[in-house]
Structures are given as C-alpha cells and as structure tokens.
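User: Predict the structure for this protein chain, please.
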Amino acid sequence: MKRTTKILIATAMIAGISGGVFAYGKHNHWGISAEDKVEFITERVTRKLNLNDIQQGNLNALARDILALMNEMHASRETHITQIETMLAEPVLDQAKALNLIQAKTSHIANKAPTVIASVATFLDSLNLEQKAQLQQFVSNRMHHRHGHSEHD
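Assistant: Here is the predicted structure, written as structure tokens:
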C-alpha cells in the first residue's frame, strides 16, 4: 500500500473518531447526563417488561457496568480531542501515534467487554420467554428504524 493511501486512511479514521467524540460531547445523546439517561432507560425497561425484583437487580447491575464504561470513556474525551487536534495540525501525520490512540481505545473497551457481556447474560437469563420475546421485538423494531427501514418496507 502506498504511503499516501496509508495517510489518507489514517486521516479518515482519525476524522471519524474525532467526529464521534465531538458528536457525543456536543449532543450527549438527548442532552442529559449519562446517569439520567441510564436511569430513564432502566425505568422504561422495568415498566415495559414488568420486571420482578431479581430481574430489576440484574438490570441495575447491567446499568452500573455500562454507566461505568461510559464515564471512563467520557473522562478521557478531552485528552483524546487534544491529541487528535495536535496530530491533525502536524504537517505529516504520525501514523504510529494515531494507531496507538486507536488501539488504546479499542483495548480499553475489549478489557471491559467480558464484564459487560456477563451482566447482559445475567439479565437476559433472568427473563422469562414472554419478556425475551418483547425485548427481541423491541430490538428488532429499533434496528430497522435506525437503518431507515419502516414497518411497511
């Protein structure tokens, strides 16, 4: 692969990451804090699925794990933005530094993934068949909606 192609790919990746970080910071998904967002979603899931106390406890544990990960990612946001801006201002992109930045982010998420997946599994395993069917229907509808499909397609 030519050096120019590598630079363009790295620049596109950095621009994408910085755009995502900027969008998260600017819009903060609904304009409320992460804690309020998690509380809203937890209350909605509890109400829609009519969770019992054990299921509610499992959902709360999942919410805590996700909130911790969100807060960790948010805490390093300013540092990452500064690093990206510095790299973009340089006459030549430091490819190794850009790659290290991306690898550090993905490594952090990969390290936290087993805990989050275990919490998801514990919550899902505590649901009955009807609740699982409701959740599957919601996720299916949500994914189609997010990808521009309507129910009439």
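Residues 3-126 form one domain.
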